[in-house]
């Protein structure tokens, strides 16, 4: 009987996928299909949980099949990450009309990412105190106990690493290994190597323009091929979003969410406050937050459902260049750097909140200026090299808590609500990188403001 019901659930899921296919054939707008998929996933997944419950075998078996679509889509995007990061950074150098802008672009992108991360940490501290969560204790069940045990092992990989040693780990020793993603810091290592290749290109361009021109043409061709693959994969976005949101809604433990409701509410309020900061920054460079939200909703909704900043990278770059008017060089820098540096949600808000919650148990005064400044500084520095895939927030939290000699068990105690919070964290991460791109492009006077205002300028994956 269970097998029969599972088959029926999967058939309904397949029928809904066919609806999205028909919408595409009728040339429905990409954003419309993404919105519809998001809403359908919430309704369908929520209905499955209400009917069967989280622990039901029907849910387990159905999600195995449904995950082929959702996780398969994320895997396709992750397949593109390393080649896209490498080609994007090198292309940023070859596409740069004036090489003198290189320093201004990289400095502005990094400054914006790190400054917003520092502000995010302050917001995380403030919201935690405002909700009275400092010193709070959470229930420890079987899942939490297992998670804490796992974290103890993982803590050993970062325990004892000083800040200089962490920085040293960013430097690529074997670029082929890093292109294969064998380390937690592989992405930033590829960024560094690509930057070296780009700088070398600029040097050759002055001394041997013919060879430099050939290299630029080769990179341009490779970039176009990779971006074409990106377009093909992005056509699957509505299907992926629908499957991912269905999975989240069907498998979330609503009872646990209610038990940790105060922490979840505080987390979402803090992340919403960070988005407000993003809007204020946009207003500062004369960009309408409303226009920004309209143009970025597809990529933010994907980041929200997939919980992968890395998976959202292709859509991030496409959105910046085609919908927000950011120049290609800056968009490539901002999206790629934002993947591993200064993630506002995972590396900013979350570690700061957890540290503030457990600090009183370690005898620290969370109201002292010394504690606040130290925590903000450690969070900002530790935001380098945070992987843009699932688990990045855990890695960042372990580093921050370990650096301040605070217990790491808190990371395991909130495991039941981790997926729910991680969705919003990831969306904030991606938004932070796009804001850095807009700010930087505006600073070098390469921001095409007409594109932002033009409602027809959206990410088009049907071309």
UniProtKB/TrEMBL annotation:
Q: How does it sit in the membrane?
A: Multi-pass membrane protein
Q: Where in the cell is it found?
A: Membrane
Supply the alphabetized keyword list. Answer: Amino-acid transport, Membrane, Transmembrane, Transmembrane helix, Transport
Of the GO CC terms on this record, one is:
plasma membrane
InterPro entries (UniProt xref): Na-dicarboxylate_symporter, Na:dicarbo_symporter_sf
Supply the PANTHER family for this chain.
L-CYSTINE TRANSPORTER TCYP, PROTON/GLUTAMATE-ASPARTATE SYMPORTER
Q: Which family does it belong to?
A: Belongs to the dicarboxylate/amino acid:cation symporter (DAACS) (TC 2.A.23) family.
Q: What is this protein called?
A: L-cystine uptake protein TcyP
Please name the source species: Enterococcus mundtii
